Amino acid sequence: MEREAKEKCGVFGVWGHDRPADLAYLGLYAQQHRGQESAGIAVSDGRRLTGHTGMGLVPDVFDRHVMGMLGSGGCAGAIGHTRYSTFGGSLACNAQPLLESYVGGQVAVAHNGNLINGAALRAHFEEQGHLFHTTSDTEVVVHLLASPQQQKAPDPLAATLRRLQGAFSLVFLFPDRIEAARDPWGWRPLVLGEIDREGRTSPVVASETVALEVVGARFVREVEPGEIVTLSEDGVGSRRFATPADHLAHCAFEHVYFASPASVLFGQNVQEVRERLGERLADEAHADADWVMPMPDSGRSAAAGFARRSGLIYREGIVPNRYVGRTFIKPTQDERRAAVRLKLNVISEIVRGRRIVVVDDSIVRGTTTREKMQQIRQAGAKEIHLRISCPPILHPCYFGIDFATREQLIAHGRSVDEIRAYLGVDSLHYLSLEGLLSCMVRPAADYCTACWDGRYRLDPDKPETGVVIESEQMKIFG
Ligand code: AMP
């Protein structure tokens, strides 16, 4: 069953600060790279929750007026969410945090990740007559929490989380506290920080450490896989809803492309990892060339590492136009092509008559890469040697990265030489999986590499253990 994962997002939460909504705004802005489709903030005044969500970028969704409303009435805590844009998944009703009333009172939820049993849980509830008002898999979390089975449990939230399978870094806002939880595999990042101010300490959670820095919080630790962290007037509390998986499944693609270079993720700074990927790529696939050119901005860090290791000169020959929005949502091929050209301007004085190594982080569908290669060729490059700092992406992601379906992936069913010919370059090399994992600090078994090797880690019955399932037998468990 092919299904597009849609919940590639950023989350944030802060309790006990005098301006929690403002901090949530900053925390989301710092994590804008994790999602540009919609943004939302929910606040608690200690008794009631209110919130605001909207389509677009953080500064578009929250103007002075909205921030004034969220900040008025004295807030106790706030959570926020930025949601990633996908083909066709762009619906205002899916903007988070989801704010609901249930038997236990009010709750707001923000989710990063993707539940592989979300559709099955939803079908189960719909058969029982439950009404859903979003198409997001996050809504089932609230239905689970509200259902009698979970409410009868000694810890309804822990009981709810044990029913979920797949990737989730979840932040819940209740009137009197925030609860932040991470799946037992640790697919997506979630970190805990603290702000010390006027003799008071306010706990913070965020997807990435870059958000902690922006709000002036110090990094304390990661929320552990299988852990629930409580942020309240009493400070920080911790309990487990599941034991961590024997082998974790940290998403290695977060390091390759998704996370901010400024963040420390799964114990390593992202920029440093990307530079190491570039160095290793130079070891594996050297090219005789005049200079190394990064594909801005995605290939910049790896290109720096590649140039350093290969001894080639690093030169920027492509200028990004930062004021152009995302291009892949443009409807026709011609418009998409024009948008790529608008977004990246090739400097012909730098490429004309030259042999160039171009470094980028990944190729997904291949459409933008092909367009960029044609531009460089038309600007007069004599040779183009494309180097990619991760292996060919062959398999879809069910755990929160928005890749195309298998058929739309350029590497699916094609050899590297066929891809090279399609892209119109003189040589093409991808970093090996072994090479990629050698740049990571944790044991190789603690990373999810399913998009490259098709080894999906799922367990239908015991989320805390995890099993490896080869892609050909891949199915979505209910
Ligand atoms: P394409 O050639 O169309 O596959 O585009 C490849 C470019 O898209 C690379 O420069 C990547 O940095 C970037 N990219 C990687 N993953 C994604 C993703 N999940 N969604 C959108 N763009 C991505």
Task: Pick out its properties.
478 residues; alpha+beta; Glutamine Phosphoribosylpyrophosphate, subunit 1, domain 1; Rossmann fold; 2 domains; 7-stranded antiparallel beta sheet; 6-stranded antiparallel beta sheet; 17 helices; 26 strands; globular; binds adenosine monophosphate
Cα distance, first to last residue?
13 Å
Strand order of the largest sheet: 3-2-4-1-10-9-11
Which small compounds were modeled alongside the protein?
A: adenosine monophosphate
CATH C-level name of the largest domain = Alpha Beta
What is the mean pLDDT?
Answer: 91
- Roughly what fraction of the amino acids lie in strands? 25-35%
For this structure, the quaternary state is single chain
| Number of strand segments | 26
Largest sheet: 7 strands, antiparallel
* Rg, nearest Å: 23 Å
Inertia-based shape: globular
Q: CATH superfamily assignment of the largest domain? A: Aminohydrolase, N-terminal nucleophile (Ntn) domain
Residue stretches low in confidence (pLDDT < 50, at least 5 long) are: 1-6, 459-466, 472-478
CATH architecture field of the largest domain: 4-Layer Sandwich
Number of domains: 2
Which range best describes the helical content: under 10%, 10-25%, 25-40%, 40-55%, 55-70% or over 70%? 25-40%
- The total count of helices amounts to 17
